[in-house]
Amino acid sequence: xxxxxxxxxxxxxxxxxxxxxxxxxxxxxxxxxxxxxxxxxxxxxxxxxxxxxxxxxxxxxxxxxxxxxxxxxxxxxxxxxxxxxxxxxxxxxxxxxxxxxxxxxxxxxxxxxxxxxxxxxxxxxxxxxxxxxxxxxxxxxxxxxxxxxxxxxxxxxxxxxxxxxxxxxxxxxxxxxxxxxxxxxxxxxxxxxxxxxxxxxxxx
Length: 204
Hints:
Elements: E1 2-8, H1 14-26, E2 37-43, E3 48-49, E4 55-56, E5 60-61, E6 70-73, E7 77-79, E8 85-87, H2 88-91, H3 95-105, E9 110-113, H4 117-124, E10 131-132, H5 139-145, E11 150-151, E12 157-159, E13 163-166, H6 171-184, H7 186-196
Helix pairs in contact: 1-6, 3-4, 6-7
Protein name: DJ-1/PfpI family protein
Organism: Nibrella saemangeumensis
Domain DJ-1/PfpI: 3-180
């Protein structure tokens, strides 16, 4: 069983984390035996207030959780009218979060981002000299955050081996199904998509 840690923060985009949570949570559901993934959420503070006021109680605080095999950083956020950053635009400058990601990313098997979660990864240095994508409205921000990254605006997700990034919001579902396929085989991913009635995930 692989431990999947999904990072949460205030103003997070709901589908950014909920889509992957659902994919990893139901993968292998019909095969019986031990589930292939143990999915949990992690946040610096609790509760987390997501977009549109959804309140979430994370499973763990930082440094209270098992070492993740898969570390997933969602997105969501922007700037208020006065220029103050919120959501991922704030967390990408949060040294506590950046240090936490660096510490747990090194021993992890996979590091994933959804949407503007790539901006947070970029600030850790984990996207240096790699290819990546993000939300279509954040491509320039990704280039600015990581000048050595090859930004792929036309890709739904980009696989660098250990680091995989996805485009915005719903693209996190496709990326997560791709990861299930990569780790467990295409039949497992197809079964997961079938159970979710998600048509059709192999679009990249």
